[in-house]
Design a protein that fits this description.
This protein is mainly beta.
Length: 214
């Protein structure tokens, strides 16, 4: 947001409400006009100690983005599928991720400027898995880790079933891409709002067929 400051040379009487009870002999009055290039164009009078330049106004939304940038938000830390694994057509695949502050959240950070502090909290709201075979799977959580007791059961939260091998894919592998959407809530400076960040991670997956020995 850009702001322009115009000094009010003919000071209004001390009783004027813009003085907010301050002494005109000790303060200068400026008219502030701001624009973010859109519909948000705040303006009004500000008071500064006599002889001092006006302090640029801080946009809380800019501070919120600054707080988010300090979080180092990353793409999903994929636990399954693994690049070293071999998967089979017709066998349910379970997908899940390792959770941390930088890969899943919650992650909280603050930024301050001009006497304003804004705090933002980020957490992944969904992960969309592009499986490399043309299918996509949307998971609203981190997924459920597989255990051997599950045998051939499909994942209750985040899974996929390949119907073709990866033999004809580039390098003989499907490239799986997990894209996380971070939902970020922020507040401070008398305002509150929402931001969104997107990150992704990839892993190559080999999918074959069951070999029958006769």
């Amino acid at each position: 947001m850009k702001c322009q400051y115009t000094k009010v040379e003919a000071k209004p009487p001390a009783a004027h409400p813009a003085w907010e009870g301050k002494d005109p002999a000790k303060f200068d009055m400026y008219f502030m006009s701001c624009s973010d290039g859109g519909l948000d164009n705040p303006d009004g009078f500000i008071l500064v100690p006599q002889g001092h330049p006006p302090v640029p106004q801080v946009d809380p939304r800019e501070l919120a983005q600054r707080a988010v940038d300090s979080m180092t938000l990353l793409g999903p830390d994929i636990a399954s599928p693994r690049a070293s694994g071999r998967y089979t057509v017709g066998v349910p695949m379970w997908m899940w991720i390792h959770q941390s502050a930088t890969t899943y959240g919650p992650n909280t950070a603050s930024a301050s400027a001009g006497g304003i502090t804004v705090t933002a909290t980020a957490k992944v709201s969904k992960i969309v898995w592009a499986m490399g075979d043309g299918a996509t799977v949307t998971c609203n959580g981190p997924g459920t880790p597989y255990t051997t007791s599950q045998a051939m059961a499909p994942s209750p939260t985040c899974g996929h079933l390949y119907t073709t091998t990866s033999a004809d894919a580039r390098s003989g592998r499907f490239l799986v891409t997990a894209t996380s959407t971070w939902a970020i809530a922020w507040q401070g400076g008398g305002q509150a709002g929402q931001l969104t960040e997107v990150r992704h991670s990839t892993v190559p997956v080999t999918v074959g067929e069951v070999q029958v020995v006769r």
